[in-house]
Design a protein that fits this description.
Shape: rod-shaped
Strand content: over 45%
Strand order of the largest sheet: 1-2-3
Number of helices: 1
Structural class: alpha+beta
Number of strands: 3
Helix content: 10-25%
Order of helices and strands: HEEE
Number of domains: 1
Length: 86
């Protein structure tokens, strides 16, 4: 009987610890999204100091990827790809 009285506080602490741990919210998970678009382009640029104009036409592919962590941090990546017309 005396042993049960000694173990009762230990059981109480163990029960409180279990309830506290099991009641805590789970860690938030990361989420991500990817968007891809294609846009026709027809532009004239002057890439050099010599003043020579270059016409660019074709399609521009834009891919945007966003990842948001469970902590609220965000990582945004853009990929631009120009596909010239033949």
């Amino acid at each position: 009987m005396k042993d049960r009285k000694l173990l009762r506080p230990l059981y109480t602490v163990a029960l409180i610890l279990c309830l506290t741990v099991s009641g805590s919210p789970a860690a938030a998970q990361a989420s991500s999204s990817t968007t891809a678009t294609t846009t026709p382009i027809d532009i004239v640029i002057a890439p050099s100091c010599e003043g020579e104009l270059i016409r660019m036409s074709g399609e521009m592919h834009v891919t945007a990827h966003n990842t948001q962590t469970g902590a609220g941090e965000s990582n945004l990546v853009f990929v631009l790809q120009v596909m010239p017309q033949a």
